[in-house]
Amino acid sequence: MEKNILKIASELTITPEQVQSVVSLLLAGSTIPFIARYRKEVTGSLDEVVLAAIRDQYDQLMELDKRREAILKSIENRGS
Questions:
Q1: What residue ranges do the domains of the chain occupy?
Q2: Is residue 18 classed exposed, middle or buried when 0-12, 13-18 and 19+ CB atoms within 10 A define those classes?
Q3: Phi, psi angles (nearest 5°) of residue 3
Q4: Whole-prediction pTM
Q5: Using an 8 Å Cβ cutoff, are 35 and 22 in contact?
Q6: pLDDT band at 63 (very low <50, low <70, confident <90, very high)
């Protein structure tokens, strides 16, 4: 997961700590409007557009990781 955090931070030119904080809040069930309004101290005052970009990129990268694992497992099973 750490590589995903670093990739998102690099693409959005924000710190990995900001990305990690946002992802943690999202995984805990917080909504983007809630984070934007009430968790500014945690996110460094990121706006809703950046928060949504973090969410979308994180979801996309996690899906890619799942697909990669499934493909590797399939290849491994065929080789046995």
A1: 2-79
A2: buried
A3: -65, -35
A4: 0.88
A5: yes
A6: very high
